From TrEMBL:
It comes from Haloechinothrix salitolerans. InterPro entries: Dimeric_a/b-barrel (IPR011008), Tscrpt_reg_AsnC/Lrp_C (IPR019887). It comes from the Bacteria. Residues 6-74 form the Transcription regulator AsnC/Lrp ligand binding domain. This is Lrp/AsnC family transcriptional regulator.
Length: 77
């Protein structure tokens, strides 16, 4: 299992609607609108790195109102 945090910047005024829409995507464990340099933080889960990439590129990035994403896979050192 691969876990990652996806940091998202949105268009002005879109954070809440983006977070709500992303929360409905299978593989998304949580989706919260936040303050700071990013507007939404998502925790995602996938079976492998390829599936995680598909989740981010094919599903998350297609949500209207997103301007930029940064995917941070969780590592266990």
């Amino acid at each position: 299992m691969v876990n990652a945090y996806i940091l998202i910047q949105t268009e002005v005024g879109k954070a809440a609607s983006v977070a709500a829409e992303i929360a409905e995507i299978p593989g998304v464990a949580s989706s919260e609108d936040v303050t700071g340099p990013y507007d939404v933080i998502v925790r995602a889960e996938a079976e492998n790195v390829d599936e995680l990439g598909q989740l981010v590129v094919a599903k998350v990035q297609n949500v209207s109102g997103i301007t930029r994403t940064l995917t941070c896979p969780v590592v266990h050192l």
